[in-house]
Design brief:
The chain is of the alpha+beta class. It has an eight-stranded antiparallel beta barrel. It contains two helices and nine strands, in the order ααβββββββββ. Strand 5 and strand 6 form a beta hairpin. The protein is elongated.
Length: 196
């Protein structure tokens, strides 16, 4: 009798342990797994990208040149090389307004994009453009300039079509006809749409 009192709880515990181990090994598939879409992979498949950006224009160490705001539009052809990696090439329009001048230009852009996970991607880009610099004061003539930019940014996918992001590191180098060499920072916030 005493033996059965001790054995019954021990056997019950052993049976529960074995059942628990068996259940853990034969865990059923997550019924929601098919609904968890990898947005970065789907976004990466699209071939056309359109974007708009807004940010700052800061010239360090050149107090005679005023800071301002920058605006940009882009249209990119996207070439996926891998499920999370693509190259983009296209055109960009750039507009900068400072306290005493206006820069308007257009150029060509190349961008490499790396998907970090299903919602985040990182990009590195280079842009080469032609810009026209107009001054508010009448005794300064308008000037032509060539602009080179290097950028690093991070994007957050809202869906398979739309991403929002920031480009905190954006270096701009400008040189041209009667334009002193100019180095500026242009950090921007952007929105990109991939309809096709």
């Amino acid at each position: 009798m005493k033996t059965s009192i001790v054995l019954v709880p021990l056997l019950s515990c052993a049976c529960l342990f074995v059942a628990n181990v068996a259940f853990a090994q034969a865990k059923p598939a997550d019924p929601w797994s098919s609904l968890k879409e990898d947005q970065q992979v789907e976004y990466n498949k699209r071939r056309l990208g359109l974007g708009v950006s807004v940010g700052g224009f800061f010239v360090p160490g050149r107090w005679e040149i005023s800071n301002g705001a920058s605006f940009g539009l882009e249209a990119m052809y996207r070439v996926p090389f891998d499920r999370r990696f693509r190259y983009e090439v296209g055109a960009e329009g750039r507009f900068v307004r400072t306290f005493d001048s206006t820069h308007a230009g257009a150029g060509a852009q190349g961008r490499i994009v790396f998907g970090l996970n299903r919602y985040i991607e990182m990009d590195v880009s280079a842009t080469f453009s032609y810009s026209r610099v107009s001054f508010d004061l009448p005794f300064f003539a308008s000037r032509n300039a060539f602009v080179a930019q290097a950028r690093w940014g991070v994007g957050f996918l809202l869906s398979r079509y739309v991403s929002l992001g920031v480009t905190p590191l954006a270096a701009t180098f400008m040189v041209g006809d009667h334009v002193d060499e100019l180095f500026a920072f242009e950090p921007v916030m952007w929105a990109r749409f991939a309809p096709l």
